[in-house]
Amino acid sequence: HVQLVESGGGLVQAGSSLRLSCAASGRTFGSRTMAWFRQGPGKEREFVAAITWSSSSSLYADSVKGRFTISRDNAKNTAYLQMNSLGPEDTAVYYCVAHRILYDSRNIYSPGQYDDWGQGTQVTVSS
Fold it and tell me: Which residues of the chain have pLDDT under 70?
């Protein structure tokens, strides 16, 4: 397992950018697919982006494709989510998650594939 702590959220205006960070503890970070989910007010939790353990592949929800970029630095045990051109629809609590199986990237869109969740960081975008 890994322990995850998100940071970098805040209140910004539409069109702005934010960079979220996810600091992980534990020795298996570099062996796990990492992802970001979000939950907006009155909405269900939804997949945002994922990146495989070696950064060989990344996937995005259609709603953020072209605006958000997921990355990771295994030497620093940290994952990132660069968010550009933010809009009010991006307002949500953002969660960093680690896939429950080492070296696995199956079913990345399902929250059930992730055992380890951070506490979340709030992103609020005003219009």
Answer: none
Angle at 96 between CA 44 and CA 59, to 5 degrees: 80
Q: Which of 102, 73, 106, 94 is nearest to 2 (CA)?
A: 102
* Model pLDDT, residue 1: 83
Q: How far is CA 65 from CA 4, 26, 102, 118, 123, in A?
A: 24, 30, 26, 23, 18
Residues 6+ apart with CB under 8 A from 93: 38, 39, 40, 120, 121, 122, 123
Bridge-partner residues for 25, per DSSP?
A: 3
Give the Cα-Cα-Cα angle 48, 54, 58 (nearest 5 degrees): 25
